[in-house]
Amino acid sequence: MPFPPGRDRRPDDSVSLAQYRRRAARYDLELMPFEPMRREAIALLDVPAGGTVFDIGCGTGLSFEPLLRRLAPHGRVVGVDPSPEMLALARERARRQGWQGVELLQAAAASALLPQGADAALFHFTHDVLRDAAALDHVLAHLRPGAHVVACGLQWAPFWLLPANLFVLGAALYSVSSLAGLEQPWTLLAKRLQSFEVRPMFWPGIYLAQGRVG
User: Fold this and answer.
1) Is this prediction's pTM over 0.85?
2) CATH number of the domain residue 99 falls in
3) Which domain holds residue 141?
4) What pLDDT, in 10s, does the model give residues 188-205?
């Protein structure tokens, strides 16, 4: 399958925000097929009880409940998302559930006012952020040494797996600002972490990567 070309670049904020403004109301339904991947990524995350996790590109807050279970009893999730519509739904989810350990920041990952010394970071289907060197540097600078980082998302499957790549193409066109880097979305992250490893998940076209801050 010929993959669409492209160059890594900072995402167009206006395009991304408009895209997620349109998707916000139905976002949870759209993400249902990816929930097993979310659960696997969060299960892999090495975080202490009572610790702090950055949920980068938190969307409507679908990761909050499983993260808070990992952090119980007094952990904190800092959710970061630039979309006001998505973050309003995340805020309502936290209010409805009575979660006290959720802090929400409406900002791009490259400029969010993050607290210092967090224990871990989750990048769940955040391709644009993972291809933004400035965003990665900013987030990782606010993690403590040894903090665990887990990323999960779309990638091109081997070219002979046409159904998987059609799925990846459709999902990517609907959710990212550039197809650049989909062959190995984790490369910028790998350069910045120690003990880095990546593996395919049970569905071709989805990867799971992890490493630690030096």
Assistant:
1) yes
2) 3.40.50.150
3) 13-212
4) 999 999 999 999 887 789
